[in-house]
Amino acid sequence: MGDSLPAGIVRPMANPLTPDVLVDPVQLTRALVDVESVSRNERQIAGYVEEVLRQMPHLSVDRLGNTVMARTDLGREQRVVLAGHLDTVPLNDNFPSTVVDDLIYGCGTSDMKSGVALALHLAATLPDPGYDITYLFYEAEEIDSQFNGLRLVAEDRPDWLRADFAVLLEPTYGVVEAGCQGTLRVQVRTTGRRAHTARAWRGVNAIHAAGEVLRRLADYRARTVTIDGCTFREGLNAVRISGGVAGNVVPDECVVEVNMRFAPDRTEKQALEHVQEVFEGFDVELTDSAPGALPGLTAEPAREFLAAVGAEPAAKLGWTDVARFAALGIPALNYGPGDPLLAHAPDEHVEIGKIRDGAATLHRWLAPAEF
Ligand SMILES: [Zn+2]
Question: Hey, is 78 helix, strand or coil?
């Protein structure tokens, strides 16, 4: 056979993101799901995405690692970012995709290749948008933040993120989720003095001393804060407790690990000060912290976006990459067709109707006829 390759050379798969597929966000979702891209294995999918974007004369394209950036430069007054991660959590007997009635099943259907499909579909079909648009398809969101493509871009190519407003197409089931809560973890430590339990009066029991720490947690009344119409519910919770030396020793140390989720009207520093106040008199050590993000719904592109969606926003209670934009002073929100409750689940799926609705909404927002 004339086209056989020498042994050991694998013919590259043809790019499945054909023009026919790019014009249909539903087909495009399936095509993206069917390119396996578990975190740290995004090279192939990033290559396909880069290749098709480079064929579009209205976009300039660049790449950092397995993160692909494409943008229009039409001289519009405002610029918006549409961003999505290319990676998925590990496969779980859910690859490749299958379709059952109105549902596409498969790894990454909800989180978040249906969202990536919307951005890629717009990049391919909207050469003349009302705002300039920067599209970001990034790697390694699902694993430790040291690998996060958006974090690497913020460090190495911050100019790629310059914008007036950003939409992350993470799964929200078609609802606008704005801002996000911050999170921090502390270790609250009690100390005592070891002794044999047969002569316990000679020691001081550090585990008993932790009772006061737990009492303060149980008595704690968490705030509920409404910002730009979004309600954030804070929380202060013990998440781990450790202490004890042996079955016959009065323990000299106990550590209660506490996680605070805080509304974005507090900075990380203010949240830590608050936790230190709650545990006044105890040794409190910060182990981990990430800032929240204000909803930022007052920027003009954000207001236009909400009008296009036509529904009230809700607060995002988890921590997401919108906080990376907020840290750069760029208001950002989450909006995507997937159902967040199905993210990372073995029966992960997305509703075809939600993909079509999302595409229609984004077109309504970004098509120049509206301006
Ligand atoms: Zn995600």
Answer: coil
